[in-house]
Amino acid sequence: MDRLQRLTQHVLAPGSEAAAVLSPQPTSSTMSGAEKSEDDVVICVAVRTAIGKANKGSFKDTPCEDLLAPLFKAVVEKSKVDPKLIGDIQIGNVSQPGAGAATSRMAQFLGGLPFEAPSMAVNRQCSSGLQAVANIAANIKSGVIDIGIGGGVESMSMYNMASAFNPEKFSKDIASNELAASCLMPMGITSENVAEKYNVSKDKQNALAVASHQKAIAAQKQGLFSDEIIPVTTKVKAKDGSVSVITVNADEGPRADTTLEGLSKLKPAFKKDGTTTAGNASQVSDGAALVLLARRSVAQKLGLPIVARMRSFAVVGVDPNFMGIGPAFAIPAALEKAGLSVGDVDIFEINEAFASQAMMTVEHLKIPMEKVNPKGGAIALGHPLGCTGARQIATLLPELKRQNGKIGVVSMCIGTGMGAAGVFESEQ
């Protein structure tokens, strides 16, 4: 929508027909219409690091700043954008110290970006990476900026939610409020709640987990991650104290030996008679991802690459006791904003926080399994909390191109009872 038209609508008389046309909020926004427009929010570059296994993988000694810095360099190199034109940087994270406020700023400097480009941290838990991208898109759509970078990072080796989470410092009234108290429920228990309420058996969960690993391994063998992963050279300490310099360019989570028989032998992780195990839940991980976005007219003027456009974004609230069902309701909300239906989507990147909730979403929305996480999901690849949403975008776009697909969806559940989803249209 033209900025002048938008401003005119804001000053029209209350109650008039035109005044009812309100600008969408960033938490539920239409970024682009069905037809291409100069005002579209487009994606120029989407890249990520490989995902390392937390506490024992190649990134266990790598600070978040060192995960992000190579990506900032790669974004500039791949797009040829003038760093001075970047109007804002927003980086999602969940557990970094100081709410991650300094991490994004320091990382941009390590990556060679100028101080004139402002930055901020974003925390909507597991959707933080997607939320950061959506925030940048909303700022572009509203005319605040023309070019921006959204993304996410997480080192679950160095920092975890438990270390920064002290329930004793919360309000004493929480215990007497059922919904407030449910926000403190362990994520694994919410998974069990979803499995029980929506009849997602352990066999179904394990089948999804095995498929996740098989697809990820197949994608690695075919080199399908090469377009999205930026190699990172880092240092890793061995148990004997020695330090090695290594270059990490492959995800460490996928296991070729994962089988239904093996998963069936795993004991419940959160509940004595439960169905959620270490094998059908996401892995704790380290990683980062960045997405460069711009207004179409500006991207065209500057000769920036255009690989996709962001059609819409939505975030919804659900009962915290059943946190994992968020995508089942966020996806339809985002698709409605884009004027699309489930059948219009070629690929769904649904975060596999737990197999229970991922399968519930698939069954609830009647999504064909062949359209879900074609290169594997978080059970195989890992789930670096603040990074995941941006990582999913970086994974989605090359696969849409490879399949000659058009519409892709990224979605995830969010702790305390929410779900987020973004809709993207390939232009490759």
From TrEMBL:
<feature type="active site" description="Proton acceptor">
    <location>
        <position position="383"/>
    </location>
</feature>
<dbReference type="InterPro" id="IPR050215">
    <property type="entry name" value="Thiolase-like_sf_Thiolase"/>
</dbReference>
<dbReference type="InterPro" id="IPR020616">
    <property type="entry name" value="Thiolase_N"/>
</dbReference>
<feature type="active site" description="Acyl-thioester intermediate">
    <location>
        <position position="126"/>
    </location>
</feature>
<keyword id="KW-0443">Lipid metabolism</keyword>
<dbReference type="InterPro" id="IPR020615">
    <property type="entry name" value="Thiolase_acyl_enz_int_AS"/>
</dbReference>
<dbReference type="GO" id="GO:0010124">
    <property type="term" value="P:phenylacetate catabolic process"/>
</dbReference>
<dbReference type="GO" id="GO:0005777">
    <property type="term" value="C:peroxisome"/>
</dbReference>
<feature type="domain" description="Thiolase N-terminal">
    <location>
        <begin position="41"/>
        <end position="296"/>
    </location>
</feature>
<comment type="similarity">
    <text>Belongs to the thiolase-like superfamily. Thiolase family.</text>
</comment>
<keyword id="KW-0276">Fatty acid metabolism</keyword>
<dbReference type="InterPro" id="IPR020610">
    <property type="entry name" value="Thiolase_AS"/>
</dbReference>
<keyword id="KW-0808">Transferase</keyword>
<dbReference type="Pfam" id="PF02803">
    <property type="entry name" value="Thiolase_C"/>
</dbReference>
<feature type="active site" description="Proton acceptor">
    <location>
        <position position="413"/>
    </location>
</feature>
<dbReference type="GO" id="GO:0003988">
    <property type="term" value="F:acetyl-CoA C-acyltransferase activity"/>
</dbReference>
<keyword id="KW-0012">Acyltransferase</keyword>
<dbReference type="InterPro" id="IPR016039">
    <property type="entry name" value="Thiolase-like"/>
</dbReference>
<keyword id="KW-0576">Peroxisome</keyword>
<keyword id="KW-0809">Transit peptide</keyword>
<protein>
    <recommendedName>
        <fullName>acetyl-CoA C-acyltransferase</fullName>
        <ecNumber>2.3.1.16</ecNumber>
    </recommendedName>
</protein>
<dbReference type="GO" id="GO:0006635">
    <property type="term" value="P:fatty acid beta-oxidation"/>
</dbReference>
<dbReference type="InterPro" id="IPR020613">
    <property type="entry name" value="Thiolase_CS"/>
</dbReference>
<comment type="pathway">
    <text>Lipid metabolism.</text>
</comment>
<dbReference type="InterPro" id="IPR020617">
    <property type="entry name" value="Thiolase_C"/>
</dbReference>
<dbReference type="Pfam" id="PF00108">
    <property type="entry name" value="Thiolase_N"/>
</dbReference>
<feature type="domain" description="Thiolase C-terminal">
    <location>
        <begin position="305"/>
        <end position="425"/>
    </location>
</feature>
<dbReference type="InterPro" id="IPR002155">
    <property type="entry name" value="Thiolase"/>
</dbReference>
